[in-house]
């Protein structure tokens, strides 16, 4: 039985589906994610070694770097970006990478603002993110 969560605010439109990878700590894409493999490479991060490619990436927060957008742009260009991004708060720098990718004509994952409690609830589940921000869980 599918469960649909009410539409959440859309930060960047689109749709995507995949297993929710809910990170347990904020991450910096610059120095934290390898743009060639999409693996988390921050040795201090609890999810070190986990691949974010094709996942619905739930971010409890981000650690700022103006280069984060470039890393996300490289992931999109290489076809190894997350399927969708769920953020507790918008990160303009990170979202810039998706905006630039879209302007380049590349397929980009959607970004949606989702509360941390909902991100945790969705962890490990297969979901689809609709263009309206609704998240449907297949159970």
Give the gist of this structure:
The protein has 139 residues and is of the alpha/beta class. It has helices at 68-78, 92-103, 116-122, and strands at residues 2-5, 10-12, 16-22, 56-59, 84-87, 111-113, 126-129, 135-138. Helix content is 22%, strand content 24%.
Please write out the topology:
Elements: E1 2-5, E2 10-12, E3 16-22, E4 56-59, H1 68-78, E5 84-87, H2 92-103, E6 111-113, H3 116-122, E7 126-129, E8 135-138
Parallel strand pairs: 3-4, 4-5, 5-6
Antiparallel strand pairs: 1-8, 2-6, 3-7, 7-8
Helix pairs in contact: 1-2
State the main characteristics.
139 residues; 3 helices; globular
Describe this structure in words.
It is a single chain. By secondary structure, the chain is of the alpha/beta class. The chain has a single domain, classed as 3-Layer(bba) Sandwich (Glucose Oxidase, domain 1). It contains 3 helices and 8 strands; from the N terminus they run E-E-E-E-H-E-H-E-H-E-E. Strands 1-8-7-3-4-5-6-2 form an 8-stranded mixed beta sheet. The radius of gyration is 14 Å and the shape is globular.
């Amino acid at each position: 039985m599918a469960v649909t969560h009410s539409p959440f605010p859309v930060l960047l439109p689109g749709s995507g589906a995949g297993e929710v990878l809910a990170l347990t700590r904020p991450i910096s894409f610059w120095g934290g994610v390898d743009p060639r493999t999409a693996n988390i490479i921050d040795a201090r991060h609890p999810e070190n070694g986990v691949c974010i490619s094709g996942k619905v990436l739930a971010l409890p927060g981000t650690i700022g770097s103006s280069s984060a957008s470039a890393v996300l742009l490289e992931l999109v260009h290489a076809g190894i970006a997350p399927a969708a991004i769920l953020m507790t708060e918008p990160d303009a720098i990170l979202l810039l990478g998706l905006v630039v990718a879209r302007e380049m004509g590349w397929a980009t994952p959607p970004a949606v603002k989702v509360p941390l409690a909902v991100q945790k609830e969705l962890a490990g589940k297969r979901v689809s993110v609709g263009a309206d921000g609704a998240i449907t869980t297949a159970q």
